[in-house]
């Protein structure tokens, strides 16, 4: 890694941390934030991608335009390289495609009303109950209550846990553009994007910019689908619709917009 690259990363991290999210309205105008919703206003939905890929046009305007950045659809959980299916624990509207967790410590949970929250895999706190996905009996209880209440859930790497960076710098760590799903201390939900950084540098960047309670890494790279709907429709990822046949799942975040799974099913 060059000296100039070191300087550019340091400058980036410092710039992202210049203004706290709490002073700017749920993070909506913080540099790097793609989508932000204040506590309780974001509706989330996890969806499967059917054979053939995403089924909506990427470039046509909406019949009824929404407010700017009102709905975003992005790749969520990692997709298996051997099969076109999500990796790790994956539950969609109560149905467990895979009830067995990977070693990743992050879990995104969507309740029956579409409210999204982020949790450590060993302490998923819902109401008065705590679920530990590392324990067989607790994992079974979680799957059962998910079925009863229509929950959705998926796994990934957690970069911020309880407000603290949970990564370490590694020698020669790969650098990629990152898209992180975050939850602020008040329950606000949003998406934060970085240029090509290591996972650790991405964790530091979002910690400086937003001070989130939790932040989860989403799948990108060659699986980077992103559609942003507002007063216009924008392709905010690298994949066009015709290139989405390998995707297995998507996360849809909406502000003041009814849930829809029409893009996939």
Mean pLDDT comes to 85
Number of strands: 18
Secondary-structure-derived class: alpha+beta
What Rg do the Cα atoms give?
18 Å
Low-pLDDT sequence parts? 1-24, 260-265
Specify the biggest β-sheet. 6 strands, antiparallel
Shape label:
globular
* Order of strands, widest sheet: 1-14-13-15-11-12
Q: Portion of residues in helices?
A: 10-25%
Number of helices: 3
Distance separating the two termini: 45 Å
SS strand fraction: 25-35%
Order of helices and strands: HEEEEEEEEEHEEEEEHEEEE
Question: What would the keywords be for this entry?
Answer:
single chain, five-stranded antiparallel sheet, 15% helix, disordered C terminus
Task: Kindly describe this structure.
This protein is α+β, with helices and mostly antiparallel strands. It has helices at residues 3-16, 136-149, 199-210; strands spanning 33-37, 42-48, 71-75, 90-92, 95-98, 106-110, 116-120, 124-126, 129-131, 152-156, 158-161, 164-165, 176-183, 189-197, 214-217, 226-229, 233-235, 249-255. The strands form four sheets. Strands 1-14-13-15-11-12 form a six-stranded antiparallel β-sheet, with helices on one face. The protein starts with a helix and ends in a 10-residue tail after the last strand.
